[in-house]
Automatic annotation (TrEMBL):
Residue stretches making up the Polysaccharide chain length determinant N-terminal domain: 3-93
Subcellular location: Cell membrane
Family: Belongs to the CpsC/CapA family.
Keywords assigned by UniProt, alphabetized: Cell membrane, Membrane, Transmembrane, Transmembrane helix
Keyword Membrane: yes
Transmembrane segments: 21-40, 173-193
Membrane-protein topology: Multi-pass membrane protein
PANTHER family hit by this protein: FERRIC ENTEROBACTIN TRANSPORT PROTEIN FEPE (PTHR32309:SF13), TYROSINE-PROTEIN KINASE (PTHR32309)
MF GO annotations: protein tyrosine kinase activity
The protein's name: Capsular polysaccharide biosynthesis protein CpsC
Organism: Listeria kieliensis
A Gene Ontology cellular-component term: plasma membrane
One Pfam family recorded for the sequence: Wzz
Length: 228
């Protein structure tokens, strides 16, 4: 038999296996749904926004001062997640979380050419995420004058459980989409393997292609004929 697989044969096998294929989809998507809604632990995120600006005595902000603030933003991002800040945050939270836990939970981001820093905290408990984010911002604002000898950080927004927490993990829509893709791939693999291992001859054309002989006639399967 030829090594190539006829597309019509694949379609015929797929049609014959349609119930098994449907079962594959149901099992994969159902398993993913059970995992996402009943097994996976949701992770929540809370955030605080900080503004890096000049001190009050600098009323006329010049371009070079703005550029200096933008450079400070990068430095402040590193300071926020430094052991000095996280150790104090740990103390404020009464040692409920280790420094390693806080380092994993706290992240800092800022948009390009922006003087606004966003401190994000993630945890499986939304209240904990809010507490960590607020304490990190509070400690940083208090300590930065001692570290940099300037008082140019303002807390724009505090983290709140009701309006700023959001579930960031797992991404249910994305995971369900991936499960559908996996279902398609598994179905294609099963159909391909079935077609490659199927040595039966289904049509006259396959018989002619296989043996190079002309088909003179066919014999009906009388077992399938209903006798009136």
């Amino acid at each position: 038999m030829q090594d190539t697989i006829d597309f019509t044969k694949i379609c015929a096998i797929a049609n014959k296996m349609k119930f098994k294929i449907a079962l594959i989809f149901i099992v994969i998507v159902s398993s993913m749904s059970v995992y996402l809604w009943f097994i996976a632990t949701p992770v929540y995120q809370s955030e605080v926004q900080l503004l890096v600006n000049q001190t009050e005595r600098n009323t006329n902000i010049q371009d070079q001062e703005v550029q200096a603030n933008l450079k400070l933003v990068e430095t402040y991002s590193t300071i926020i997640t430094s052991p000095r800040i996280l150790d104090l945050v740990k103390q404020n939270l009464k040692g409920k979380y280790s420094k390693e836990d806080l380092s994993d939970a706290v992240n800092v981001k800022n948009n390009a050419n922006s003087q606004v820093l966003t401190i994000t905290a993630q945890d499986t408990n939304s209240k904990v995420a809010t507490e960590i984010a607020n304490q990190t911002a509070k400690v940083f604002k208090r300590e930065i004058p001692k570290i940099m000898k300037v008082n140019n950080v303002t807390i724009l927004t505090n983290a709140g459980v009701t309006n700023q927490n959001s579930e960031v993990k797992p991404n249910r829509a994305l995971m369900l989409m991936l499960s559908l893709i996996v279902g398609v791939l598994v179905s294609l693999i099963v159909i391909t393997i079935k077609a490659m291992n199927d040595k039966t001859i289904q049509t006259e054309q396959e018989l002619q292609m296989e043996f190079g002989q002309t088909v003179l006639g066919t014999i009906e399967d009388f077992s399938k004929i209903k006798i009136q």
